[in-house]
Amino acid sequence: MNEFAKFGGLQSAYDDLLRRTLAGIPSDLARLIYLASTRDYNSGAYHHEGLSVRHRPGEARDALQTAHRDIFYKLAAMSLEEMVDELELYVRVSREQTTGLLRAWQELEPYRVAVPMEVDPTIVRLFLSNIRLALEVLKHRRLQHQGLPSSASPLPSLGR
Amino acid sequence: MTEILVFIGIPILVLVLLSLLGATWNIEEDASEDAEEGFRQRCPSDRETAVCIRRIFSPQDREFVERQGSDRLRQIYRAERTRVALYWVRRTSREIGQIMRDHRMASRGSANLQVGRELGLALRWLEFRLICGMLIVLIRLFGPHVLKDLATQALEVSKSIGRVLVDSAPANRIAAAGTPGGA
Question: Complex ipTM above 0.85?
Answer without folding.
Answer: no
